[in-house]
Amino acid sequence: MSPAVSHALTLHQVRLTLPESATPSQCQIQERRVRKALERIAVYPGLPPQAILIIRHLADPDPGQLLAANTWQGLRAWEQATQAALNQHWRTALRPAIAAVSANAASVWFEDPAEWLACLSWDVYQGVAGDRWWWHAVLCHYPHGMAREALFHQWQADPQWLPAALRLLYQSHPVEAVQLLGALPASQAEHLLDTVLPIYGVSIPVTPGAAPTDRHQTLVAALTPHLGIPQPSTIATLPLVTQALVAVCLTLPNTATLVSATRSPAAAADASPMPTETADAPPPTKLPVAPDRPVVTPASETVSSQESPAASPHSWPPGIPKIVSVHSEALGEVSSSSGDRSAAPPAVSSSGLSAIPPDESSDRPPESAPDRPIAPPLILSDTAIAMGELGIGTAIGGLWYLVNVLVDLDWPERSAVITPWHQVAALAQALLPDVPLDPVWEPLADIAGEPLPEALLSPWQAHILTQVRPYLTERLEYPDAIAHYLQEPATLYLTRTHVDVVFSLDQIRLDVRLAGLDRDPGWVPELARVIALHYE
Fold first, then answer.
1. More confident residue, 188 or 288
2. Is residue 269 packed enough to be buried (19+ CB in 10 Å), middle (13-18) or exposed (0-12)?
3. HEC string of 131-176?
4. Which among 149, 162, 274, 510 is least buried, having the fewest CB atoms inside 10 angstroms?
5. How many other CB atoms are found less than 10 A from the CB of residue 372?
6. Residue 402's Cα: distance from chain center in Å?
7. How does pLDDT run across 68-89, given as a tens digit for each residue?
8. What is the DSSP string of 84-147?
9. pLDDT tens digit string along 278-318?
10. Is the pTM for the entire model greater than 0.85?
């Protein structure tokens, strides 16, 4: 679950069955063959790009093919069977964030890393994480009863997902979230604070000679009015350093607000919004929103078109894999009389094969797991639920090319009022001859927050075009074609941590590619998300 993960498939443990007469030497040979074969497989289940699917036990979908004599043909057949099996699990997987899930569930899924981390945090607080098989891979390296220590370590391992995860947890269960955070040691809270701020590109002015508590007090005082959460007074019961961490995390992903609230008065004056000639600003102008619900393509319907290598060629761009974790139930060593021998569990990744030590502490066959009491789940809004499973069909998918433009121009006139999310939408509208009704405007407006008054919007658009036009002229043979490039249909998956824009392969434009507009922006601190452009 680290931010650098590039795995398409992770196997927690592999169980290899050999004849009872197999010698130790033969076992080692077969284990090496399995490792080598698994290094070469590539499967692409029909999941939303950042969905995390965890499967309890996946039986060999095509016995005998993985180690077939004709290695290449056997691997392709095994890949196809495995992809179909994973898609079947995806169709029936349960989502712990929105519904209670039995401990005997066959598979579960999470929308993105933030939801995964929030659900882990909630189960640890409830004291049931050890009973959830889908957390075994996280908890297996910690002694029994140290689930909170494992959780805090996971927060430190994935700090960029922490703000979104804490916001989800706090919005659902504010009292319980405070109690969980209260158990965080001060040293760890300080470490997390120092880690999260640079990841989001935020620097807090520090007075020379000031004590750390002064910085914490400054953060708490500056950010508390911007939290926008239920029961903000409950945070006051936490230690000061933890209050500062929570204030920062709950203020993100609106980094413009955080920077504006914590900068010095002189710096704030220098970055004040551009003056306008209009003394009385007219009512805010909202982004156009399609009157009807957007046309979406359910993930369950897209799976069938990706169930074979022919329908889903192995051309997924390097560095933009779909994150799919498949963890079989941890199995211990089986006696030789049964004919089963455990192979060392490999992990399959795009970067190679590495061994993962087996989980001896959770040696429990799937059929013997008792049905534990079910803890209440996190509750998400209907919009959040739909966004996790359904991609938004948009006619202006090229809008996300503008992220690269704004990054190169360093987000001109960025402020707490004109946030980067405002800028993406406003620049697209300025470059389009006619602003079309499109489903994308609604989620952009929701994330951006308060709409910009026309008195600020129009001057900013006029100002930014004086920089964007030369930028495009330098890079595009026909810079006026940018309006056409923006109006590329695509499927948009927008989560708390990622923006994935999926185009078809025939939409690749040489002019756009040479200009670098369709390169992957990756982690964009100003938007607090990973932006990825996919061509399938």
1. 188
2. exposed
3. HCHHHHHHHCCCCCCCHHHHHHHHHHHCHHHHHHHHHHHHHHCHHH
4. 510
5. 13
6. 21
7. 766 777 788 888 888 899 889 9
8. HHHHHHHHH-B-TTTS---TT-SEEEESSHHHHHHHHHHHHHHT-GGG-GGGHHHHTTS-TT-H
9. 434 434 334 444 433 333 333 333 333 333 323 332 222 33
10. no
